[in-house]
Fold this protein.
Amino acid sequence: MKIPFRVGVVSWIVLLSYFVYEPFAIRASLAPYSYLSQPMSDLGITECGVGTYPWADYFICSPHAPIVNSLFLLTGMVLLIGLWSVKERLELSRIGRVGFTCLFLFAVGYSFSVIPANVSFEWHTYPALVMIVVAPALFCISVKLNKGKMLTIISAGLLTIIKVGIIAVAFLPIEWGGLLQRLFYFVFYCWGLGMMVRLKGK
């Protein structure tokens, strides 16, 4: 059964709406929170304190943690719907289908973010590392693509630059990791919404 166009569009809008909610979670934080340097998942930590997970040598206290973690789970499920709604409207090459398989694995890995880092750092972190396949997957999808080719290539390029930046932050004294993480998801969600708009009528 084909996912209705409106459902596909709404799924990507729902994903983008996380960024509308996040400022409320940040404002509610009982500890100083920096969206520039701290990861999104810090807002999902379910206990207050210093050293709540291996990389957190600073104080965290997020009253909105249950809501944030619920949104992480919802994001994983909605992302699968959004990706499928794009895929079934495209005529893909073989390598393009491989690219979408990688994106579906990314969506599944993102769903593990529902496990707070202070509960299981490994299960929270390692599945999410599948995000490294997103940019290469988009390049694969762009092969022999008719509609949305330039959007896909540009998005893949931007995601590559952002990912290189995230890696560089780990070795340089630049505290922009949180901002880069948010930009990564924002660009990817905008790609999905943009593709649905381009594929209207299919």
